[in-house]
């Protein structure tokens, strides 16, 4: 009986040694679009962050447009998203997330994010000029610069939330940016910031300084739409 017990104990010790130590410094890493997070199963990991320019845009009155012309609005949305994708790529950005009529993108700096936003709005003006008033697809855009958390190709964090809230207070066809963006680019000759004052934004405790951008047509860049993957449907 004693021999059997010793054999069981020996077996259990060997089994325990087969389980890898997740605290070791040699834990493998998973790399996602320039970010990396430690791959440690269900355990709580330290997420790596980095500062990026963030752009969030959606279509003004999308529900109304869909109600009056469901199929036509969808086709115009597809074309609008192609314009958006082309300018994100032209400014070395990456689309992190789609949400129906909305898009979230990241850039290496605030300059690239804001240039993309301006060019999207100018390109949208040109495109909408060929459409009837009730058919036009107008974008609202928010831009911020801050730290984000990357996970499975998407980005998260307070800076992302702020960008989405800034988009909500932007006017049709305009761009609303944060104090963080203005501080980085206020001396840049290409951008003119107009103060909106302190704004109380949904689910953000303290009021934030917001600015809208005076758009100059000289910014526009004609992107290569041929390189954009055609969207056949936009998930809601």
Secondary-structure content class: alpha+beta
Separation, N- and C-terminal Cα atoms: 65 Å
Total count of domains: 1
Number of strands: 10
CATH class wording = Alpha Beta
SSE pattern: HEEEHHEEHEEHEHEE
CATH H-level homologous superfamily name: Nucleotide cyclase, GGDEF domain
Helix content: 25-40%
Query: Over all CA atoms, what is the radius of gyration?
Result: 24 Å
Number of helices: 6
Summed over residues and divided by their number, the pLDDT gives a mean of 81
Spans of at least 5 consecutive residues with low confidence: 15-39, 226-236
Main sheet makeup: 8 strands, mixed
Q: Supply the CATH architecture.
A: 2-Layer Sandwich
Strand content: 25-35%
The rough form would be described as: globular
CATH topology: Alpha-Beta Plaits
Give a quick precis of the structure.
The protein is 35% helix and 27% strand. The chain contains 6 helices and 10 strands.
Describe this structure in words.
- It is a single chain.
- The chain has helices at 2-17, 62-68, 70-90, 110-128, 158-169, 179-185; strands at residues 29-32, 35-38, 49-59, 94-99, 102-107, 139-151, 154-156, 175-178, 193-199, 208-213.
- The protein is 35% helix and 27% strand.
- The chain is of the alpha+beta class.
- The N and C termini lie far apart (65 Å).
- The strands form 2 sheets. Strands 3, 4, 5, 6, 7, 8, 9 and 10 form an 8-stranded mixed sheet that branches.
- The longest helix is centred in the middle third of the chain and has 21 residues, at 70-90.
- The protein has a single domain (55-227), classed as Alpha-Beta Plaits.
- The radius of gyration is 24 Å and the shape is globular.
- Strand 4 (94-99) and strand 5 (102-107) form a beta hairpin.
- It has 6 helices and 10 strands; from the N terminus they run αβββααββαββαβαββ.
């Amino acid at each position: 009986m004693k021999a059997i017990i010793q054999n069981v104990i020996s077996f259990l010790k060997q089994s325990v040694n087969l389980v890898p130590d997740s605290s070791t410094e040699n834990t493998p890493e998973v790399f996602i679009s320039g970010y990396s997070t430690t791959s440690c199963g269900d355990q709580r990991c330290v997420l790596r962050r980095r500062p990026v320019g963030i752009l969030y845009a959606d279509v003004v009155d999308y529900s109304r447009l869909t109600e009056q012309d469901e199929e036509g609005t969808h086709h115009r949305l597809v074309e609008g998203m192609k314009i958006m994708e082309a300018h994100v790529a032209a400014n070395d950005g990456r689309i992190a997330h789609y949400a129906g009529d909305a898009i979230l993108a990241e850039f290496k700096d605030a300059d690239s994010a804001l240039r993309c936003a301006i060019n999207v709005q100018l390109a949208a003006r040109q495109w909408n000029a060929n459409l009837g008033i009730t058919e036009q697809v107008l974008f609202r855009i928010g831009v911020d610069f801050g730290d984000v958390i990357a996970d499975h190709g998407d980005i998260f964090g307070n800076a992302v939330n702020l960008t989405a809230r800034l988009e909500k207070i932007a006017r049709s066809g305009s761009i609303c940016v944060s104090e963080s963006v203005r501080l980085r680019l206020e001396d840049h000759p290409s951008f003119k910031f107009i103060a909106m004052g302190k704004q109380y934004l949904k689910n953000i405790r303290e009021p934030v300084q917001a600015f809208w951008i005076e758009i100059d047509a000289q910014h526009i860049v004609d992107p290569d739409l041929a390189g954009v993957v055609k969207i056949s449907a936009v998930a809601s």
